[in-house]
UniProtKB/TrEMBL annotation:
It comes from the Bacteria. This is LuxR family transcriptional regulator. InterPro entries: Sig_transdc_resp-reg_C-effctor, Tscrpt_reg_LuxR_C, WH-like_DNA-bd_sf. The keyword Ribonucleoprotein does not apply. Pfam families: GerE (PF00196). GO terms for biological process: regulation of DNA-templated transcription. CDD domains: LuxR_C_like. PANTHER family: DNA-BINDING TRANSCRIPTIONAL ACTIVATOR DEVR_DOSR (PTHR44688:SF16). SMART domains: HTH_LUXR (SM00421).
């Protein structure tokens, strides 16, 4: 019997949510995503183009030698950065959205690192953004599969909110805990406020940090024995997410934001993440509880906009111009910048001329002053 798309999607989402409690299964979840998206390889990684550093957290079907060469050398030649770090979390993007394919195919990065692996394109979504870096979920396509098409983009949009939610919750859970550990014991070790609740919000378990949030009463409180957000809009979103967990499928959480914003009376902002406990490893770990969901609440991390990003957005710089502007902040001659970016000196001069024209700067020292005045220096 052929699997329907909704059944296939449910299997993929279940794999990601189960990985929050069993991190060794992340590669299997990425493999499931590739099967659903028609991708050749996938990973979850972090990259900072300022310090030219990258960390691969989880991957499937990546060639270890190419990953090693990327981290040690090609990370600085990737022309998609820093542009990717400026894309808001949750927004699906492809390689062609950032750099036209013909231009990308002329880069050293494509010729020396992408093409030898038989790859042609990439689709991704940022999971987190920081001032100069981003954590990203990416899926690559082979030459045989072709460039990212609308069907792949549609399917990525379906799973992206769930991948973000799974990664956010996975950050909260102690990776050393085994699946044999009761979920209550796992949540006791979590620094975020954690609650086990049923579909109506009735609390089955609260950890120490969660108790503190309830006692404070600025964000959450008990009403008729059920967990309630003080802010009406946040409470509506929380009620909808919890009601969806009663359906018993991960798909029921839908395409909404993976986070519920909670604002206190003093202006502090927190995020709540809802993990359904409907199946697989999550259901096994929650035995002994009537809960249908685990809720994690933590103070929101607000990314600071860097000076480079502010200038790039304000003057509509191209991704290639963003790279050159980023490199200007590190100093060095035109030739040194060209060597660092893997392009010709003439290319750097062309991009600099365009940046000067767009920003009104006359020399690189003017650009440095603009970077400093628009936010954190680089």
């Amino acid at each position: 019997m052929q699997t329907t798309e909704i059944e296939h999607l449910s299997q993929v989402l279940a794999a990601f949510y189960d990985a929050t409690l069993d991190p060794v299964t992340w590669p299997a979840a990425l493999e499931a995503a590739c099967a659903y998206l028609d991708g050749a390889a996938a990973n979850i990684f972090w990259q900072d183009p300022v310090v030219q550093s990258a960390v691969i957290f989880h991957s499937w079907n990546d060639d270890p030698e190419f990953i090693e060469s990327y981290v040690s050398h090609y990370v600085r030649l990737n022309p998609f950065f820093p542009a990717i770090t400026f894309i808001d979390p949750g927004v699906v993007f492809s390689g062609g959205d950032i750099i036209p394919h013909p231009e990308f195919h002329r880069t050293r990065f494509f010729e020396e690192w992408v093409q030898p692996q038989g790859l042609i394109d990439v689709i991704g979504v940022n999971l987190y953004r920081f001032s100069t870096s981003a954590a990203c979920f990416s899926v690559r396509r082979s030459r045989a599969q072709g460039v990212v098409d609308e069907e792949m983009r549609r399917r990525m949009a379906l799973i992206a909110p769930h991948v973000r939610r799974a990664v956010m919750i996975g950050r909260e859970i102690d990776r050393q805990k085994s699946l044999s550990t009761k979920l209550g014991a796992i949540l006791d070790s979590v620094t975020a406020g954690a609650f086990l609740v049923n579909a109506t919000g009735r609390i089955d378990f609260t950890n120490e940090a969660g108790d503190a949030l309830l006692k404070d009463g600025g964000l959450l409180r008990l009403r008729d024995g059920s967990l309630t957000a003080v802010d009406p809009e946040a409470n509506h979103a929380l009620r909808a997410s919890l009601a969806a967990t009663a359906v018993g499928t991960d798909v029921s959480l839908g395409l909404g934001s993976p986070s519920i914003l909670l604002a206190s009376r003093t202006g502090e902002r927190f995020l709540a993440h809802v993990l359904p406990l409907s199946s697989g490893a999550r259901q096994k770990a929650s035995l002994g509880y009537s809960a249908t969901a685990a809720i994690f609440v933590r103070r929101a991390e607000i990314p600071v906009v860097s000076g480079v990003e502010a200038i790039a957005r304000s003057h509509k710089l191209t991704p290639s111009e963003m790279r050159v502007l980023q490199a200007v902040g590190t100093g060095g001659s035109v030739r040194e910048i060209a060597d660092a970016l893997g392009v010709k000196s003439a290319t750097v001069k062309t991009h600099l001329a365009s940046i000067f024209r767009r920003t009104g700067a006359r020399r690189r020292s003017d650009l440095l002053r603009q970077i400093a005045s628009h936010g954190n220096p680089i």
